[in-house]
Design brief:
Layout: H1 2-8, E1 16-23, H2 26-42, E2 48-51, E3 59-62, E4 70-73, H3 82-90, E5 102-108, E6 115-122, H4 128-142, H5 155-164, H6 170-179, E7 202-207, H7 210-222, H8 227-243, E8 247-254, E9 273-280, H9 286-300, H10 308-314, E10 326-332, E11 342-344, E12 347-352, E13 360-366, E14 371-377, H11 383-405, H12 421-430, H13 443-451
Parallel strand pairs: 4-5, 8-10, 10-13
Antiparallel strand pairs: 1-6, 1-12, 2-3, 5-6, 7-14, 8-9, 11-12, 13-14
Length: about 450
């Protein structure tokens, strides 16, 4: 993340996460800010900055005290969208040398008593779970339950544990076995630039039908797998289709807290990590693909804190080319998500957006009942079309798995459809409708008619 921050060179940073909250009164906003300051004081990771100039390696510095910056702005009373104006005026650049890497910008909403607060955190100190922890502790202070909060654990303990794993050599061996013969990147739509800032990306959201969500869970259970595994296989099929490759690699976002030790679920910090998964689509059936992906994801958990650069170096892909340019983030999401409206009493979520440097990413949000997709893609990619491909591939994959589990043939993964009826008609019929009326006459006559 520091690499991408330096690439931005003071400009928009893809890893600054903006969250806009709407308060019913200024008093409630002020109480929120006071509680937020106390949460920042509780946790070492929120009081850090990053230093790198003149050093052999970057270091994260914990400050004993870091005053939370609060900036008050004024939005145009005629503004049709005060939230967007606030986001545009503040932007997504951030000075990583100055702690804390948490910033608050507030503005009165025109025409009433309501207030907006833009909360910005850099991903180098937090992940999605961290933001939920932060808001949960703010609520505890606001509701008089601060005494019930557990003693904060230092994030540096988990950093030390992750670094210790680098010395064993196990990460290198695992990724060499997985990726040693991969010599070309898997780049959907031929896009190999993974150094973007994500500012030109567009989103498309789609909710899987409740019946399909239930079928995914049932099929996964019968195969001894998880819904996440099934969705990884569906994404594999889509990536294979849009890249034209039988051997595909893409990134999966790991929670990072499964093997981080006791208390990791209540410690804020950047635990998540993105690491590669690989599958040969032409060499496996759909059932075997699910079982193989289950084993691969389970094995990745033992290496969830390995650096992505290490995995890249274990492959045969040239060092200046990314191993993959698409990622999948499957997240059990019972807390903060795009459908959240009221966060706290008198506080509503007005805007929330997470970006990455990858040209194509998909977030799969699973709240235990329904499964929803968010495809985030650069302007050159039709994110809605990709979302449609994923929905079709998921339904087709589940159908193929169900038939195999009921005694039918085990079809190859390549037999899973990715084009629905509408997409198939567009590709096969509409895009190939090249018929044209040809005028009658000899070539000299046609030429004479044109120039005459």
């Amino acid at each position: 993340m520091l690499f991408h921050h330096l690439l931005a060179d003071g400009g928009e940073d893809a890893y600054v996460t903006p969250t806009v909250l709407e308060f019913d009164t200024r008093e409630r906003l002020d109480a929120f800010v006071r509680a937020l300051k106390k949460v920042v004081e509780r946790h070492d990771v929120f009081r850090t900055s990053v230093m790198w100039e003149g050093l052999r390696a970057p270091v994260q510095v914990v400050w004993r005290h870091a005053e939370l910056p609060l900036e008050e702005l004024h939005v145009d009373v005629q503004s049709p969208d005060p939230v967007q104006e606030l986001l545009t005026r503040v932007g997504l650049s951030m000075d990583l040398v100055r702690a804390p890497l948490v910033r608050v910008h507030v503005a009165a909403e025109p025409g009433g008593d309501r207030w907006l607060a833009l909360l910005r955190l850099h991903h180098i100190i937090e992940d999605h779970t961290s933001l939920e922890i932060l808001l949960g502790e703010v609520e505890a202070f606001l509701t008089g339950r601060a005494a019930e909060l557990p003693e904060p654990l230092p994030f540096r303990t988990f950093v030390a544990q992750a670094r210790a794993g680098l010395e064993s050599g196990e990460h290198e061996r695992f990724f060499a076995d997985l990726l040693g013969d991969v010599d070309e990147p898997t780049a959907p739509y031929g896009l190999v630039d993974a150094r973007r800032d994500g500012m030109d990306s567009n989103e498309a959201m789609a909710a899987l039908a409740p019946e399909l969500s239930e079928r995914i869970r049932d099929t996964a259970r019968r195969l001894g797998a998880s819904p996440a595994t099934v969705m990884h296989v569906a994404w594999t099929r889509v990536i294979a289709a849009i890249t034209g490759r039988d051997d595909v690699v893409f990134g999966t976002v790991l929670f990072g807290r499964m093997n981080a030790g006791p208390g990791a679920d209540r410690v804020p910090g950047p635990f998540i990590n993105t690491l590669p998964v690989r599958m040969r689509v032409d060499e496996t059936t759909a059932v075997a693909a699910v079982r193989g992906m289950r084993g691969q994801l389970a094995a990745l958990l033992e290496h969830e804190h390995a650096p992505l650069a290490l995995a890249q170096q274990a492959s045969a892909v040239a060092g200046d080319v990314p191993l993959f340019t698409s990622i999948l983030n499957y997240r059990p999401n019972n807390g903060l998500n795009r459908e959240t409206t009221e966060l706290l009493d008198g506080v509503e979520l007005a805007f929330f957006r997470e970006r990455t440097n990858y040209p194509l990413s998909i977030a799969v949000d699973d709240d235990g009942t329904k499964i929803a997709l968010t495809v985030d893609a650069v302007a050159a990619i039709d994110s809605e079309a990709v979302a449609a491909l994923v929905c079709t591939a998921t339904e087709s994959l589940v159908s193929v798995l169900e038939r195999a589990l009921e005694g039918g043939p085990e079809l190859p993964l390549s037999a899973v459809d990715v084009l629905g009826e509408v997409e198939r008609r567009r590709v096969v019929s509409e895009w190939n409708d090249t018929a044209a009326v040809v005028p009658v006459g000899t070539l000299p006559e046609l030429f004479e008619a044109q120039v005459g």
